[in-house]
Amino acid sequence: MTADENQLMLRVVDGDRHAFVQLVEAHLRPLEVFATRMLADAAEAQDVAQETLLRLWQRAAAFDPQRGRLSTWLHQIAHNLCIDRLRKLRRVSNWNESLDDTPAPAVDTLVDERHKAVSMALSHLPERQRSALLLTYYQDLTNREVAGIMGISIRALESLLVRSRAALKQSLEETV
Amino acid sequence: MNQQRLKQLIAAYGGDAKRWPESERVAALNLYASNPELAMLRNQQASLDQALDAHSVITQSRVTDVMARLANRDKCAQISRLSLWDRASRWLVPDTLTAAWRPALAAALSLVLGISLGVLNPDEVGDWSSPEQDVFMPYIADANNTAYGVVDDWSDDYE
Description:
The structure holds two protein chains of two kinds.
Chain A (H helix, E strand, L loop, with lengths): L2 H11 L3 H23 L2 H17 L11 H30 L13 H12 L2 H12 L4 H8 L3 H22 L1
Helix pairs in contact in A: 1-2, 2-3, 2-4, 3-4, 4-7, 5-8, 6-7, 6-8, 7-8
Chain B lengths: L2 H11 L8 H12 L5 H16 L8 H19 L2 H9 L8 H20 L11 H10 L3 E2 L2 E2 L9
Antiparallel strand pairs in B: 1-2
């Protein structure tokens, strides 16, 4: 957490919307990127990213800079929201499948086949492997921070990373 | 740092040293430099790293979207703090013209309710065809009754 962000957070606690806007500008995009890769659904990802920042506004006083960076805290909220959404979507998907066997069209914002292959491979990873890989590889977080977000040890995180990379590699070799 | 740990780092974080944990990076690179055979391990991860690096995502949210949601949430929170009567009043008399149908609907419902009650209870309406004096006769007959008793006819006193 930078000193600037620390100041902004103090102002947000006091209800300063200008400070909040600056934090939204800094964090909205990375959160949406993470949620899009997690959920493979652009609309849900937008909702998760925006909801995460609204929770920052509502619970700013609960943030403790001694415990970690603001970015880590926000990713933890976004990650939890993504897990909730995935479970709900899975329930809906299972329900739909019981009514109709035709596969739902894949929703993503990617442009070419290789991107689609990576997207598909990521979406087929088990939830925890996907979280570990996306948070570590893309979100500019340290392994300690990712382990904290996921509530696991660094050793367990690295085990998930090894398995996720192996599964992704195999999946991509089969499709591309 | 040993060779086993370096292999673990490459398998977990990929071949790009900048993604390795900062606390182990320098030692891992030094070990790597002295073991050229480890290059094969990094190369094995290179294609996956390239595929992951190329995986871009287009985002669509704007700051204004978040602020609009915040404003909407504030409005909902304000309304939830209002009493039932205030909430009903706000619903009935909206701020915007787009919701002007609400008072119109309330007026129309009142009209329909009134007409329905009138149609369903015709006996409640009196017979207005009777002469006016018949209707008011009881009051006129009791005109000399007051709270102090019956007022005498004083007309004789002045004669």
